[in-house]
Amino acid sequence: MLHNKAPDWLIYSNLFPESVADRQIFILDINVVQASCAMSVHYFKFDGDRDDLAKWSER
C-alpha cells in the first residue's frame, strides 16, 4: 500500500484521474486470476458515479 504522503506518491497517482478521495494506492503482484461462468450473478445497472464525497469536501 502506498500512502499519499509517501515519496513515490506522484509517480503512481499520476496514472489515475485526480479525486478528492486520493489517499492510498494498492500495488499488487497478481499471480493467478480465475473466471466464473457468471450464471448466478445478478445484473446491476451502473447509473453513475456518486458525488457525495466531492460535495462533502467542498464544505
Keywords:
59 residues; alpha+beta; 2 helices; 7% strand; 2 strands; two-stranded antiparallel sheet
Would you mind describing this structure in some detail?
- This protein has 59 residues and is α+β, with helices and mostly antiparallel strands.
- The protein has one domain.
- It has 2 helices and 2 strands, in the order βαβα.
- It has a two-stranded antiparallel sheet with strand order 1-2.
Explain briefly what this protein structure is.
The chain has 59 residues and is α+β, with helices and mostly antiparallel strands. It contains two helices and two strands. It has one domain (1-59).
Find the structural class using helix and strand composition.
alpha+beta
Topology as a string of helices (H) and strands (E): EHEH
- Radius of gyration using CA atoms only: 17 Å
How many β strands by DSSP? 2
Q: Strand order, biggest sheet?
A: 1-2
Q: How far is it from the N-terminal to the C-terminal residue, by CA? A: 29 Å
User: What is the domain tally?
Assistant: 1
Silhouette:
flat
| Strand content bin | 5-15%
Outline the secondary-structure elements.
Elements: E1 2-3, H1 9-13, E2 24-25, H2 52-57
